[in-house]
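Lecture notes, unit on protein representations.

Consider one protein chain, 235 amino acids long.
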Amino acid sequence: MRVILLLVLIFSRQLDAEPKTLKVAVNIGPPWAFYQEGKGITGIDVEIIRQILTKMGYHSEFHLLAYNRLIKEFNEGKFDVASPAAFPPDNGYLTTPYLPFADVVVSLEYNKYNINTLADLKGKNIIAYQFATSVLGQEFADTVKEENYLEVAERELQLKLLVNARTDVVIGERRLLNYIMQKNHPAERITIHPIFITQPYGAIFKDQPLQQQFDQELEKLQQSGLYQDILNNWP
């Protein structure tokens, strides 16, 4: 009996020593977070979070979600971490911003559009991502409210409409739009109009001690150079 009790105690301690798994919701959109055949869920955001959580002693279980569902289900307590956090959360704790999102205007090169300010969007058909009027500010919202403006969740559809001349411009994150164009429409040449300020975002944690530990490990990752290496993998 003593031997059995000892074995049970040893096994229980081994279970306690196993790293806990954190459920992480990430917004689907290459190259930030996407599914790659043979590799699983990967991308800039995924690999940064994975590296840091591993250093913290945790396994990570990633889930790809549309942004509105990501925020909703995080607020419902279904995930330990959600990223990116572009809006003030109902609950949870924001990390230090680490994702250099750069929203831009994209047009087809042959149209030769001269777009240097928000005012240059007037008179154009415009497609942007969901909640863009909230993210990009009141001046942008005022500019597009009188225009032929549409918010579309699917990035692939946004660019398909651009290539098929169903819209004049698409507004979205530079790396993301570049990635999809190169993958789906490699023969098309685009012009990028960087009229918005680059806005860095972070993640959001359900527990504050984990958020604080994440920030500490994030700083170490940046100082080591590995953070920049991950960004360089998807220029």
